[in-house]
Amino acid sequence: MTEKDFIPQSNISYPKEGRIGYKAPSNIALVKYWGKKENQIPANPSVSFTLDACATRTVVTFKEKTPADEFSFDLLFEGKPKEDFKPKIETFFNRVAVYLPYLKKYHFTIDTSNSFPHSSGIASSASGMAALALCLLEIEKMADATKDDSYFDKKASFLARLGSGSACRSIKGSLVQWGKHSGLERSTNLFGVPYPHKVHEVFKTYHDTILLVHKGQKTVSSTVGHNLMNGHPYAKSRFVHAHTNLDALEAVFASGDLEKFIGIVESEALTLHAMMMSSTPYFILMMPNTLQIINAIWDYRKTTGTPICFTLDAGANVHVLYPEDYKEQSIAFIQEQLVQYCENGHYICDKVGQGAKKLNLK
Ligand code: PMV
User: Of 82, 98, 242, 255, whose CB count within 10 A is highest?
Assistant: First the structure.
């Protein structure tokens, strides 16, 4: 498929008004996307677990307006107007306008809220952009019944990607791959696809407990971080490394080999941060407590043999990953030894989820 396949026919008749809602989850990358080309094209492929509890719920109300010459929308966050989110939405509208040519026809009210606490340091851009893309695309679906679900999922992911790269992995569950990779047929830079190879049962119920080490704003945004991979001295080998790790994960996902899984996932997390530390200018997003947690996980794993591991996003928070069968001891360990390193003792228990869902609005 190419971008052109996502431009709708011009003879569709769109509804005059309506109301649509979607809930879309966040996701956590196992092989990380870090570095991008123009139009949100990733420099390397990635794969992620779709999450469940961390999600954005968005309701879009739309009504025809004249003239249809510019974008018009109100943005509510948790029921209240939120002016500072508007520029990001405006940029998103501009990027997707050619694929959603009806956007200027309507005035929109976008009402959005997150299931996770505001300013928890958890990026809401993936779940937020996925939920918004789904709502806007649903208008096309109302007008054109000829397109199937598979087209809808691909286009929703394609649009979400234009909002925030990793958002394209938040449409479907439970393991999603994004980015062209020779080992994965049907893989593309344009949208995320459900992981096409065999996935062992253990990965379908994996847990992710997110330890909130730092709840404030990050010092360096992902956009800036991605751009610092241009001309980065280790970029070329990092991109090759991501492909190698994706290849290695194929056998791991199929067999459920947790030791190898842990080796790849932790290496990916540390490599992501190593790229940040070796950018020009260099920066560090981990905090002392991030390292305390990592060391405590390593000690605990060594002494108990529990297959618990960590991964990191572009921030100080730690995602603690463990299989369902080890849930009890892992939670006990987190509460006894790791919660002390969280800001105000806060953490979120999440697990692998099944993707976005349309809301049943009254
Ligand atoms: O989607 P962005 O532009 O916020 O970038 C996300 C990058 C990482 O979260 C660090 C890695 C990933 O693959 O999700």
Answer: 242
- What does the pLDDT look like over 307-346, one tens digit per residue? 999 999 999 999 999 999 999 999 999 999 999 999 999 9
pLDDT tens, position by position, 96-113: 999 999 999 999 999 999
Nearest-atom index, ligand 1, CA of 314:
10
Write out the E strands in the chain.
17-31, 36-37, 41-42, 46-64, 72-77, 80-81, 106-114, 175-178, 192-194, 207-211, 309-312, 318-322, 347-351, 357-358
CA of 321 to the centre of ligand 1 (A): 18
| Whether the Cβ atoms of residue 49 and residue 198 lie closer than 8 Å to each other | no
Distance (Å, whole) CA 99 – CA 92: 12
Q: What's the 39 CA to ligand 1 centre distance in angstroms?
A: 15
Q: Where are the domains of the chain?
A: 3-8+16-196, 206-351
Q: Decide: 278 and 35 in contact? Cβ < 8 Å.
A: no
Let me know: does 343 contact 214? Beta carbons within 8 Å.
yes
Nearest CA to ligand 1 atom 9: 313
| pLDDT classification of 215: cutoffs 50, 70, 90 | confident
| Ligand 1 pocket residue status of 165, Cβ below 6 Å | yes
Atom of ligand 1 nearest to the CA of 223: 3
Distance from residue 230's CA to the centre of ligand 1 (Å): 16
Q: What is the pLDDT of residues 292-315, one digit of tens each?
A: 999 999 999 999 999 999 999 999
Residues, the chain? 362
Q: Which fold has domain 3-8+16-196?
A: Ribosomal Protein S5; domain 2 (3.30.230)
Residue 269's φ and ψ, nearest 5 degrees, are: -60, -45
Tokens, residue 15: 């509804």
229 phi and psi angles, rounded to 5 deg: -80, -15
179-206 per-position pLDDT tens digit: 999 988 889 999 999 999 999 999 999 9
